[in-house]
Amino acid sequence: MITLANLKPAKGAVKKRKRIGRGPGSGFGKTAGRGMNGQKSRSGYSKKRGFEGGQMPLVRRIPKRGFTNIFKIQFNIINLDTIELSGMDEIKIEDFFAKKLAKNSRGLIKILGNGELTRKVHIYAHKFSKSAQEKIAGAGGEFTVIETPKFTRALANERKAAAAAESK
């Protein structure tokens, strides 16, 4: 009968640990399996990620391409069908974030003309496509273009502060 007192691992499942640096009789004395001289035989050696033995690493051999434009302005894209479903008659910038129509608080708002409007709506946004302008005007609504701020980071921080104050 098997009990906790006589449990053993399967035969060959457990190997004896290699005990290095324990004299010449062990077979791993003197240099302790590290060979003779060289960087790898020294204490404290650790190979750096991407190190290729002094050869120029692959990361540095491959040419760099392109760049990231740090002045790029990101827009939250909102279609007219989303505005139609919101059921609001007047939508200001804060409402897009409050009703979760726009996700990126750092981005600006751009309205596109995908979908139809069946009622009058007054929309405030940073940009409107031509088709969106025509459809809003065709439904008897109004659109107001808000001047794009120069520093979107400052705008994002203001919104964060306003959201924090509102949640308290």
CATH level 3 topology of the domain at 75-167: Ribosomal Protein L15, Chain: K, domain 2
Share of residues in strands = 5-15%
Mean pLDDT: 88
Which shape, going by the Cα principal axes?
elongated
Distance between the termini: 65 Å
> How many individual β-strands?
6
CATH architecture of the domain at 75-167: Ribosomal Protein L15, Chain: K, domain 2
The arrangement of helices and strands along the chain is HEHEHEEEHEH
Specify the biggest β-sheet.
Answer: 3 strands, parallel
Radius of gyration: 34 Å
Give the number of helices. 5
The largest beta-sheet arranges its strands as 1-3-5
Unreliable spans are none
Q: Please state the structural category.
A: alpha/beta
Task: Output the CATH class name of the domain at 75-167.
Answer: Alpha Beta
- Roughly how much helix do the residues carry, as a percent range? 25-40%
Describe the protein's topology:
Blueprint: H1 58-61, E1 75-79, H2 80-86, E2 90-91, H3 93-98, E3 108-112, E4 122-125, E5 127-128, H4 130-138, E6 142-145, H5 152-167
Would you write up a description of this structure?
- It is elongated, with a radius of gyration of 34 Å.
- The strands form 2 sheets. Strands 1-3-5 form a 3-stranded parallel sheet.
- The longest helix has 16 residues, at 152-167.
- The mean pLDDT is 88.
- It has helices at residues 58-61, 80-86, 93-98, 130-138, 152-167; strands at residues 75-79, 90-91, 108-112, 122-125, 127-128, 142-145.
- The protein has 168 residues and is α/β, with parallel strands linked by helices.
- It starts with 57 loop residues before the first helix and ends with a helix.
- It has a domain at 75-167: Ribosomal Protein L15, Chain: K, domain 2.
